[in-house]
Design a protein that fits this description.
Blueprint lengths: L1 H16 L12 E7 L4 E10 L2 E10 L2 H14 L4 H15 L28 H15 L4 E3 L2
Parallel strand pairs: 1-4
Antiparallel strand pairs: 1-2, 2-3
């Protein structure tokens, strides 16, 4: 688990300093705003679809390092996926960070997202890691706002 912990810290720092897809898509077909009032994380997610496939996804917002890194990796993960695939990953990610999915024994398609399993040890940070995922899921379902209260 130490290797996973080291990788977690390395990835969080990298994506926090250099977030991928941190921009606005001005003509976005879908968008949603996410808010975590307990710690102040705020995000806006922008999505363009090509049929049922996420053609482009980006975000803007402010918050802690875990929030920003999770949002950055979320955009990389869902880009090119179908809506159904993105929903499946959202549900698996949420189950993992809330302790309902064991990445070692349960079948899943999380891949590199497994590094966020360590968030479970810090319950106050679960919402930081999952806010961007809730927000992109809301955008895919044409919901404009989500809160992790």
């Amino acid at each position: 688990m130490s290797e996973l912990s080291d990788l977690y810290q390395e990835v969080i720092l990298d994506h926090n300093k250099n977030p991928r897809n941190f921009r606005e898509i001005e003509e976005a077909e879908k968008r949603a705003i996410g808010n975590n009032p307990l710690c102040g994380d705020k995000i806006q997610v922008f999505v363009n679809m090509d049929g049922d496939v996420v053609e482009d996804v980006a975000f803007q917002g402010s918050g802690c390092a875990i929030f920003k890194a999770s949002a950055s990796i979320m955009t990389q993960t869902v880009k090119g996926k179908t809506k159904e695939e993105a929903e499946k990953i959202f549900h698996e990610f949420h189950e993992m960070v809330t302790g309902k999915l064991d990445i070692e024994t349960d079948d899943n398609s999380l891949g590199k997202l497994r590094i966020f399993a360590g968030v479970l040890e810090f319950p106050a940070r679960v919402k930081c890691a999952s806010l961007s995922w809730h927000t992109v899921n809301a955008a895919l379902h044409d919901e404009e706002e989500v809160s992790t209260e």
